[in-house]
Every structure is written in C-alpha cells, then in structure tokens.
C-alpha cells in the first residue's frame, strides 16, 4: 500500500528529505506522495521514515492503493534498477 498525506499536513518540510525513493514533493497546498514511487520504505528501512518524523501524524496508508509487501519490494527493485 502506498502512503498518502492528509490535509492535516502543516508543511513542516521534515518528510520530504526522509524519503529514500524521492516520492514526496510539495503539492499545491500540502506535500504529496507519488504512489508510483512509494514503497513504504520496503527495501530501505523496516518502517516508513516519513511516518516516523511526521509531527502531526498525517501520513496514513492510502486505502485506494493496497499493495502486498512482495509488490512493494518489486516496485523498490524497479525504482532502484536504473
């Protein structure tokens, strides 16, 4: 499952540099996560780093992007194969 950033985001800028896949970027109003690049940090860390540093807890799993751990690992391998 990819992660998403909710409208509770306060644009504190701490999540973007933590993402090893460069999936987080500034959106029009709040930060956004590119679901094609988000692996929930599978392949890099045991836990999503953006969730660990978020001071307002506004980065839940995206219920519309359900992916297995194997699918996330495949995505990680695709992203890092370049």
Automatic annotation (TrEMBL):
Any GO MF annotation of the entry: 4 iron, 4 sulfur cluster binding
A Pfam family annotated for this UniProt entry: Fer4_7
Top-level taxon in the UniProt lineage: Bacteria
GO CC annotations, alphabetized: cytoplasm
UniProt entry keywords in alphabetical sequence: 4Fe-4S, Electron transport, Iron, Iron-sulfur, Metal-binding, Repeat, Transport
Domain 4Fe-4S ferredoxin-type residue range list: 1-29, 31-64
NCBIfam families reported for this sequence: di_4Fe-4S_YfhL (NF033683)
Full protein name: Ferredoxin
Species in which this protein is naturally found: Halomonas halmophila
């Amino acid at each position: 499952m990819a992660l998403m950033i909710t409208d509770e985001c306060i644009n504190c800028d701490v999540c973007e540099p933590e993402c090893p896949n460069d999936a987080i970027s500034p959106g029009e109003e709040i930060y956004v996560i590119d679901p094609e690049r988000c692996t929930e940090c599978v392949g890099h860390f045991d836990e999503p780093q953006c969730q660990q540093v978020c001071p307002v807890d506004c980065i839940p799993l995206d219920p519309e992007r359900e992916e297995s751990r194997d699918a996330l690992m495949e995505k990680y391998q695709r992203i890092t194969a370049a």
